[in-house]
């Protein structure tokens, strides 16, 4: 590590995100120790607000293609962010609401590939997949013990639980979850 790298490194408790890719020049950071969000937008727009002060986020339509985020406190507007495209605002809102755990890669989205970078990082951090467990089924109809090995991976209940985890991480939408859940429940 060079001297310049030492001055520019970001501490581990600071999470940063560029919701519209790095070319848009909109950046937000979240300090996990203090709960402080720091927003740096285009044209000198700046905002700071704490996660504990957020009551809700209004995603207001400005035109058919652009929206603005209003970070609302209990009795005041904490921050008004830049007017940005709908997709960038959705990314930014998801990131703020999840406290930095849901982050979409805008450049991949533009190519039609929705990638939740936080979900990918979580999967990488989890390590290689664990071998699937098996369930032994005992047939008692003939007083002889036979066992059939059934992979737990085909268990619809287990699959629904896995889909719920993906939904909670933001890797799939609620509509995708409901559709797949119905398919799996029909198999039971």
Written description of the protein model:
The protein has 188 residues and is an alpha+beta fold. The chain has helices at 3-8, 86-97, 106-110, 117-126, 156-169, 174-186; strands at 14-17, 27-31, 36-40, 46-50, 56-61, 66-72, 77-85, 134-138, 147-151. 32% of the residues lie in helices and 27% in strands. A hairpin with a 4-residue loop joins strand 6 (66-72) and strand 7 (77-85). The chain is elongated.
Question: What's the helix and strand layout?
Answer:
Layout (H helix, E strand, L loop, with lengths): L2 H6 L5 E4 L9 E5 L4 E5 L5 E5 L5 E6 L4 E7 L4 E9 H12 L8 H5 L6 H10 L7 E5 L8 E5 L4 H14 L4 H13 L2
Antiparallel strand pairs: 1-2, 2-3, 3-4, 5-6, 6-7, 8-9
Summarize the structure.
The chain is built from six helices and nine strands. The chain is of the alpha+beta class and 188 residues long.
Helix percent reads: 25-40%
Helix count from the secondary structure assignment: 6
Number of strands: 9
Strand order of the largest sheet: 1-2-3-4
Strand coverage percent: 25-35%
Largest sheet: 4 strands, antiparallel
Mean pLDDT: 80
Class derived from helix and strand content: alpha+beta
**Over all CA atoms, what is the radius of gyration?**
23 Å
> What shape does the CA trace take?
elongated
Unreliable residue stretches: 145-150
Distance between the termini: 57 Å
Order of helices and strands: HEEEEEEEHHHEEHH
